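Teaching assistant's notes for section 4

Start the section by putting this record on the projector. Ask students to predict, before seeing the second block, whether Glycosyltransferase Family 4 will look compact or extended. Collect guesses on the board.
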Amino acid sequence: MQRVRTSLPYFQEFGWNADVVVVHEDYSEMSKDELLLQSIPAGTIVYKVAALSRKWTAKFGLGSIALRSMFFYKKMVDKLLKDNHYDLIYFSSTQFPVCVMCVWWKKKFQIPYVIDMQDPWHSDYYQDKPRDQWPPKYWFSYRMNKFLEQVTLKHSNGLIAVSQKYIDDLKARYPIIKSIPESVITFGAFAPDIEIAVANRDSFPKLLIEGFINIVYIGRGGMDMHKAVEPVFKALQAGLLSQPELFGKFRFHFIGTSYAAKGKGVPTIYPLAESMGLQELVSESTDRISYYHALVTLKDADALFLPGSDDPAYTPSKIYPYLLTQKAMLAVFNTRSPATEVLRNSADGTEIVIFDKADAVSRISRILTKWANKEFKPIHLRPGFENFSAKNLTGKQVDLFMKVLEHFEKTDTNA
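Reveal the predicted structure now:
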């Protein structure tokens, strides 16, 4: 819901009213952050639906909030569409299974829908990987996602994605949607979030260690990030051998690396650190923390680390919150990642390293040596950074909505 939350203050300015349907927070095991409500405009209508108790569904191996809430979403949205006039359904979340209900709503109420592909829904990424690298319940989720994506995407009326490759892959996979409107829109920078976080700094427990150089990454982990993380760990190894007192000051924190319920996540970064003898310098907490707690922790860090994926289409959604902190930053990505262009266009001073280049480790070693000596170079936002503001990117969403309505009216593919 991050994109929707940061767009709500601007939708009306662009001529749209948005009602929001969410799962009631009592049914979610994710960390809660009441401060998020401060950024939602007064008068916004938010409908909350129930979900089946995870205590019961877990007995059948089903803990997903999407699956547990699907029936309740149908019931609520059916009533809303029956009693009110809406022009469009906009689905913006990574709980993709709920999207399949859009097919029903389109057929029943003749309303188009747009899907925001913040991450891939169905992916073959793990198909050629060893079983010990598969995520939990991969056999089931792979088949479920493959089926539900096909059913949903073949009837969709518009696509938004954070990467052009996501859209290209979907249109190649489902040629029937090759002509529907599309738009690549990254997550916007929402400056009020930093202000809210700093104003409430004392509300959150401190996660960093005083007396050390704290380098922070907050976001998902995964085996696909090892190619970006490993050269950093190799540089740490080399530094510990050559200058143990200097490099021994580092503490790398990987926080919120799993989407699993609290206490259920499987570490994917710490085992790599442990295998390289860096267990004293690296910590990983799989549990998610609240959004503003994350922002405060980023602000408290000495420097930030932003690893990419070996999937060239991957663009981290946390790029703009990172940039808004204006902290010293090391970003490690693959050659084809669109994130490198975003970083270069947004700010000056970000240390960008390509992990598949021969000099990656040596470049990172030089950066870490400076950091070990407390030579931190803050980044500076470029004038063009405003192009990536939440307001401007809300305008791009609205442009896409208008194209969808026009295309839907002309083609009348509402069956």
